[in-house]
Specification:
heterodimer; A: alpha+beta; Alpha-D-Glucose-1,6-Bisphosphate, Chain A, domain 4; eight-stranded antiparallel beta sheet; B: mainly alpha; Arc Repressor Mutant, subunit A; 6 helices; 59% helix
Chain lengths: 165, 127
């Protein structure tokens, strides 16, 4: 069973996600450490990621882009703010401009990842902290095939409520 | 699961007669207006910023905004010299829903990780 639990705290704007994998802590660490493995799972559906740089050391910078369904690219970066291989690291994840420099338009999210051995497997806990609802909205919009599709389903929901009212 | 509703005070609900529903459907019957709602639900913005997205006059965009505003799909307010438009959704509900969508992203990621691990459980070739 991969998925264990997840908890959202809408006031603190945090998401805690826990999953367990049938592999050693060292092995799970590699999927974060090795950019070729990292880019196979980091991007949201229909937005595959490509890591051009991945300096997984204290203060190290990573640069990546995600390619959308219409070939459009969104650039992002990480700064690994602390790291204790193979059990824990913290990082900031934000949008970047064409040069890979941090975007000033939107603040980065902060992530804390811990890997613990449990019953011969690994429990991975990620805690993501968002700075604002607006930021969250922009991030979620990225994960959608199209931002408008997401909005349309909300419009559908609005209409459904209206019809019931 | 939190649902997104029109800022759900009783007045809005009471006020929702048939012609109001008609207005909503009419408002959404137009592709530009659907696109405007999609944009401002994601993020509030000024009418002039919105207008940059469309090959039509500012006045035409303003007219679309007015139709949407009458249907209560969006809210327009004046801030200084700008008219700011945002989606008429309850922000708290929205945040919850957004976090849930982010959770889905993590579920997707965890599933992808599981697949990668199953290809190579212990060594994880870096080639």
């Amino acid at each position: 069973m991969t998925f264990v639990s997840s908890e959202t705290n809408r006031d603190a704007l945090t998401l805690t996600f826990v999953a367990e994998f049938d592999a050693s802590v060292e092995r799970v660490w590699q999927i974060w450490e090795d950019p070729r493995q990292l880019e196979r799972w980091w991007g949201p559906p229909t937005w595959p990621a490509t890591f051009e740089r991945h300096d997984f050391t204290p203060g190290g910078r990573s640069n990546y882009y995600m390619t959308g369904p219409e070939g459009n690219k969104e650039r992002g970066y990480w700064v690994t703010t602390s790291i204790e291989p193979p059990n824990r690291f913290e990082f900031d994840d934000g949008f970047a401009d064409e040069n890979g420099d941090p975007s000033t338009a939107i603040e980065p999210t902060h992530g804390v990842v811990t890997l613990q051995e449990v019953d011969g497997g690994t429990r991975m806990t990620t805690v993501t902290t968002f700075v604002s609802t607006e930021q969250l909205e922009q991030l979620v919009a990225m994960g959608m095939e199209e931002g408008s599709r997401e909005a349309m389903s909300q419009i559908d929901a609005l209409l459904a409520e209206d019809v019931r009212a | 699961m939190a649902s997104v509703g029109i800022t759900c005070n009783q007045m809005v609900v009471h006020d929702l007669q048939e012609d109001k529903t008609d207005r909503i459907f009419h408002a959404l019957a137009d592709a530009t207006r659907r696109d405007i709602v999609a944009r401002v639900v994601q993020r509030e913005q000024s009418v002039s910023t919105l207008a940059e997205n469309y090959a039509m006059s500012f006045a035409a965009v303003q007219k679309h905004v007015m139709v949407l505003e009458r249907a209560s799909l969006i809210v327009k307010e004046r801030r200084g010299r700008e008219q700011i438009v945002h989606g008429n959704v309850d922000t708290v509900h929205r945040a919850t829903q957004l976090l849930q969508q982010y959770e889905e992203l993590w579920r997707f990621r965890a599933e992808s990780i599981r697949e990668i691990l199953s290809e190579n459980p212990e060594r994880g070739d870096k080639s």
